[in-house]
Amino acid sequence: MTKIYTYTQPVDADIVDAFCVLQKGFTDQFVFYDKTRKARFMGLGRCIALSSLRDVEYVVQGETGKPPILFSFNRFDAENPSPADELFASFPRLSLMLPEVVLIEDETGKYLQINSLGPVYAGRVARFSRHIREAKPRTRVTIPFELERDSREAWDEAVAAGLSAIEGGRVDKVVLSRRQKLVAAHPFSSKDLLVNLIDGPARGTVLLYRYGDVFFCGCTPELLVRKNDAAVESMCLAGTCAAGTDEAQRSRLAEELLHDQKNLQEHAYVVDFIREVFRRNCHDVEIPDHPGILPLQHVQHLYTPASAQVLEGKTLMGLMSELHPTPALSGTPVGEALMLIRQVEAYNRGFFGGAAGYVDGDGNGEFAVALRTGVFDGEIGWLYAGCGIVDGSVAADEYDEIDMKLKTILSAFDGECDA
Ligand SMILES: C=C(O[C@@H]1C=C(C(=O)O)C=C[C@H]1O)C(=O)O
């Protein structure tokens, strides 16, 4: 049995400013920051890595009684035998990571949490609190960059392979992606991109996982699963159109998307899959019959929320691995689509499209699908985005759709525009 000591106390500070000050001393960094809901967790350092919560006992110190927060970043297709690029390959394969320091903002307030394998010394908490109080407001920087465009012919060939697998009856849908290399004018830090994503216009949950000098980050709109005791939620997100340049155009495009048979079909595969997983693991499953729209800064998606009560004994990690990858990121049927992706894509997706989240010591928490992301080091990065291919998909349209999705991670380089 591993014993964890966790000391949480309220802080009167902006947690992002606090993170910016504290992060300098830590090369292990973990962020799950929901921009709309107060579910914000920013971890520093690694106290211990665990394979599951089963053999863990935690001792609460401090006045709040809060459980420890652990982070979990999982690859899209962890068993894919083809090598990931060297940036992704440098990350360890760990299941749950307990940071030494966690800054928390939830519905009840803002907190500093210190985790340790021995009793937390109060002087350590006081020292971090003092640093936090001295934190200056963060500043944003614009990072000029150039993109090395990927080959259009390679994309056309990948889509043709997908369409022929659909025609042959091997899959009904396959999600194919593109990867682009970014070269910035000068080296940038994880803090620079994190601050630009949190303070910029991108909507969703900002993710960061840094290990050593290499970091993975982005801002995703897609919830995979959230668990709060018995209540669980998920989200079906598939089917895309442009955001439009003004409100009138946005609502016209949204209306078209809501009636577009190809996009509705792409979406329905995801709804069917999530309904099936929920029906197997939960009761009182509620999933509306018709999708709505999730409007984002650069694109809009067909969106169907899913909620249920989970069967006693089922865990968040268990639900995460049953749900992931959904047909929103792989295709239908999932196994066949994964095999096709392994054959068609020239790279291993690494954390792109993986499940990234946090879980607390009581087993509650959430996972997002790591979309609109990239992996970075020094002045370079690899950016990823994908789209669903079904019967009738046109390679050129899907190429443009991916360009629209890439704008979200590219907005991390822009420190000018305010939210
Ligand atoms: C694959 C991505 O997005 C997914 C694919 C979508 C689609 O095909 O319409 C929409 C939302 C996401 O589930 C991505 O952003 O890279």
From TrEMBL:
EC id: 5.4.4.2
PANTHER family linked: ISOCHORISMATE SYNTHASE ENTC (PTHR42839), ISOCHORISMATE SYNTHASE MENF (PTHR42839:SF1)
Keyword Translocase found: no
Catalytic reaction list: chorismate = isochorismate
NCBIfam families named in the record: isochor_syn (TIGR00543)
Protein name: isochorismate synthase
Cross-referenced InterPro entries: ADC_synthase (IPR005801), Anth_synth_I-like (IPR019999), Chorismate_C (IPR015890), IsoChor_synthase (IPR004561)
One function term, GO molecular function aspect: isochorismate synthase activity
Organism of origin: Raoultibacter massiliensis
Family the UniProt entry places it in: Belongs to the isochorismate synthase family.
Keywords assigned by UniProt, alphabetized: Isomerase
Domain Chorismate-utilising enzyme C-terminal: 152-405
